[in-house]
Amino acid sequence: MRAVFPCQASTQSTHRFSNCFKATGEDDFLLIVVARDLDDYSAFVDTTLRRLPGVTSIRWNLSLKEMKASSKLPVRVAEG
After folding, report:
1. What are phi and psi of 3, to 5 degrees?
2. What percent of the chain has pLDDT above 90?
3. Which of 10, 11, 22, 32 is 20 to 30 A distant from 41 in Cα terms?
C-alpha cells in the first residue's frame, strides 16, 4: 500500500513547488520545483525536501530547454 503524501500541506504553502501531481508507476508524486540555479536547488533539497516526513527517496530530472508549453488540452467537448 502506498502512503499518502505526508507533506501535501507543504506543497500548498511553499512557493518553490510550482506543481504537484500524485502519480502512478515507480514514483508516488511528481513535484515541479522552481530554483535560481543548481546550488539553490541543492540547498532546497537538503534543507527542506529531505526533511519532510515520509520522504524516503528523491529522483530528479533537469529541464535543459523548454520546447513547448501550454495549459490547454486537446480534448473535444461533446456537443448537445
Report:
1. -80, 150
2. 10
3. 22
